[in-house]
Amino acid sequence: MNELHLARQALTTEPIRKGFGRGLLEAGQKHEEVVAACADLTESTQMHLFAEAFPERFIEIGVAEQNLVTVGSGLAAMGKIPFVSSYATFNPGRNWEQIRTTIALNNQPVRIIGSHAGIYTGADGATHQMLEDITIMRAMPNMVVLAPGDSIEAAKATLALAVDRRPAYMRLTREATAVMTTDKTPFQIGRAYVYRKGTDVSLIATGTMTYQAMMAAASLAKDGVHAEVIHVPTIKPLDYATILESAERTRHVVTAEEGQINGGLGGAVAELLGENLPTPMLRVGMNDRFGESGQPSELLQHFGLTSTHIAMSAHRLLMDHSGHKH
Amino acid sequence: MAKTQKNYSVPDIEKKANQIRMDIIKMLEHAGSGHSAGPLGLADIFAALYFKVLKHNPENPDWEERDILVLSNGHCVPVRYAAMANAGYFSRKELMTLRQMGSRLQGHPERQRLPGLETTSGPLGSGLSQAAGMALALRMDKQQHRWVYVVMSDGEQDEGNIWEAAMLASKYHLNNIIAITDRNNIQIDGPTETVMPLENLKEKWESFGWHVIEIDGNDVENVIDACQMAKAIVEKPVMIIAHTIPGKGVDFMEYDFHWHGSPPNHEQAVQALKELRTLGGKIRSEHE
Fold it and tell me: Which residues of A touch B112 (CB under 8 A)?
């Protein structure tokens, strides 16, 4: 994939939320109906760029996440495209029912932005490390669920959301993570992308874990295992075709996500394969546990969310389910 | 296509309210489930809204110049359906499909099923904040001549979301919101003041920065006057606390919280319709 930076020696890093902030500013410049509201975390969720450029289109809600999304629903009812942001642990963690009734069932194009998702939230501890957002949001009919893999993709996803008419949730990460895509890397809501071709195992990852999967694939190659890497920035609607096509060729699947494997991307892929193409698989992610305070790198290691864990899972799967010798 | 209200007199609107009550009884009896007390108590308010106060067009529910009416306490939607049918949005015959499979008239209102509903509601406490979002959007679009009405219950003011919205509307001086609280003093578990005291409700809203008008919500003229007065308050959002009698118009339902979530059976419906037809006994002697 010549559209990826991964061949370079030194990757730059940037928080995914920064891409959202830039994308929202650009969306605001391009589309007059784009408005924004925040629950007392304007700079933290990177909404300040929009708020400073368009003060008359920005609403400061205060620490009131139920109000945040229902005000958003009202704005959408009058033809606006509202982006409403807070931390994922509150939005959609605290206001799920309001989202269900007034946005999903009501089918209004509110963009629910959950920043500081995942274990990367680090030192703040388990209360602020939202790991269940993908699970609870993909259960909701009508809802689009996005987890961009880096800041460049987050900006593209934000611009795509500005012209989409479906209710949507997008998760963002606080800490700086690897920037692996370029302006030319394709992004479309509903599409999964093969970032590396392979024949032995499909590593299917979302959000920050796609980079880990790419690193895992490089390491597996040294052991003679040819891993395919599929990046899934849209968890719902899931790109069935791309995943099934890959699983059919490789016959082995490892999923990777920075969230609960129960009902997350791992759950979604297991559902798809279980009904259509039963395939041996392992899920890398949080396994029914809460996090704790610590440095992100320590936590990723402790909870098994690194490229090493993905590679180990691939080896285990191949050992258990094929004639591969390791 | 602009449409202004026909010039209904107060007695005309009172008759509409009575017709709405009879329709509610028939709908609920036919459906076999649903809420009786709230919709009956709100009939005068909905008759006043649909036949006098609201700028709307039943032939063009999405008319761009219309006023917005949000029903926050979605369980009271039978009164809205009955008012809409009587105003000409759809036939009164369709009212009898309430709560049936495939009906546009869902047990709780769903915007996408029936033109003329502005939102989907039922879970309590989120109507006022949606109204605030709508009012903000109208202000951004310089559509300040359009009003956002929101009807809410008293029991739902136990919900924190209401007070989040109260602060926001006050902060942004959303004077294009006219909220109406159906102060009927009952909720499912009993009287509001027993379940979770709301008083002093007027002072609560005033302390949140709202202008409060208290009225008799079963008096059509009172409702019309209060809405008119609310439009003259330019610096604040307005809360009309409308004191109503739950189950109003049906003697055995009035004031009884047990009717909050129950429909009448056939015998009770016959009795209720007889009372409503004779206007609560005022003209009974002519029939007996």
Answer: 106-107
